[in-house]
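Researcher: I'm preparing a figure for a lab meeting and need a structural model of a single chain. I don't have an experimental structure, so a prediction will have to do for now. The sequence is pasted below. Please return the structure as tokens so I can convert it later.
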Amino acid sequence: QVKWKGKDLFDLVCRTLGLRETWFFGLQYTIKDTVAWLKMDKKVLDHDVPTEEPKTFHFLAKFYPENAEEELVQEITQHLFFLQVKKQILDEKIYCPPEASVLLASYAVQAKYGDYDPNVHKRGFLAQEELLPKRVINLYQMTPEMWEERITAWYAEHRGRARDEAEMEYLKIAQDLEMYGVNYFAIRNKKGTELLLGVDALGLHIYDPDNRLTPKISFPWNEIRNISYSDKEFTIKPLDKKIDVFKFNSSKLRVNKLILQLCIGNHDLFMRRRKADSLEVQQMKAQAREEKARKQMERQRLAREKQMREEAERTRDELERRLMQLKEEATMANEALMRSEETADLLAEKAQITEEEAKLLAQKAAEAEQEMQRIKATAIRTEEEKRLMEQKVLEAEMLALKMAEESERRAKEADQLKQDLQEARESERRAKQKLLEITSKSSYTQSMNSSTTALPTDLPSFNLISESLSFDFKDTDMKRLSMEIEKEKVEYMEKSKHLQEQLNELKTEIEALKLKERETALDILHNENASRGNSKHNTIKKVS
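Model: Understood. Here is the structure written out token by token.
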């Protein structure tokens, strides 16, 4: 509305978002290439806002926490900071080394896609995502597929982290970057030397224009006695009166006002952090702890249900596999039975033929014996006829002997065939018995399978366990939660060491693919700081 003040518009945005940690945020607009923030006690239209319609304001974090994990209570606050810091890194407003960029990208993917699943997150699923600063991509001879492979390798390790946890891990890494949360302004000292003034949650820092990573000198908030400006001259009075007053000039009066706003706001938050939490913050933290504990229990319940469902599915798959195996065994037994029956029929037929042949041979042998007797009884008058007859008799005797042997052999073969037939019938009986057993097993397995298959639909019954859990957060629960948090801190320290090792490993791995000629001034400065062992915090301590 036309009469609205800055606070009215700001409160409307905060209510719409459900945001209670309002002290970090503000409404930003641009006037004559200079950033400005909407004043809460001044009418919106009384500001030097652009005249064109519609009037655009950006809801952004104006002040940054020293420690995101300890200070950011609400999930929505964490999410808004995550979005803003991620955009600043991708837009290269915050310098981020290549190996840390890959790690941050993996947490951003975890926050968006949830747990890694190779069946869902197949090669190329990050092709349309903007995850790395263009400076990092251009610095190495690596294809998008190679970057995706390295991001995915770390993404897979974040399994089990919820969106808010992944975003918080992102912020915990980002807050250690040198340019995180720093507002830079071009200034001149009394000698006219061009410098940069950096304002952040820790204090005021003076930089060379070509080096935004390492300050030349720093004034922590607790060592500043007074800050003031007159026209374009800005004065910083240290608490220690032995230290000289630092004066500088900015290009515009509007910039001086903005610097003073940021100094006052950051100083107030710096002092507030070192006092006991207000009642509102205590209430929010208590609610956040309860919500975190509730979500943790809910996640554990869902994890249990998921595990039980997976076990049920595995059991079902195993039973289905076993059923298929039994069906195959039954089919094979059926085929064996059919082969046994065919073999038995053939053997029976062969035995019958052999038996008939034996009878026929016995009949021929009898006929030969009769012929021999008839020849013997015949009187032979001449010697020649006698000799011929003897020869015929001899031949008849030999033939009869052969016939008798063949008959005996055939008889034995018939007996053997009868025995084989008996064995074949016994084999047939056993095959039928085996088929009967398999059929009974198959029906049992099918009944088991049907009951197991129904298990996932019955899974809500597991909720009976969770419904009986108490959500009454007593002191003992909070003490237990505190102990868990302490344990998590120790684990985090161990993980940090592991993380640093991983970062160094990745840096070494991709170093061979780096194009040295494409290194920016900030890349070179960062590498020099890293080789000296300088970090954001120990550098500020040195130059304070």
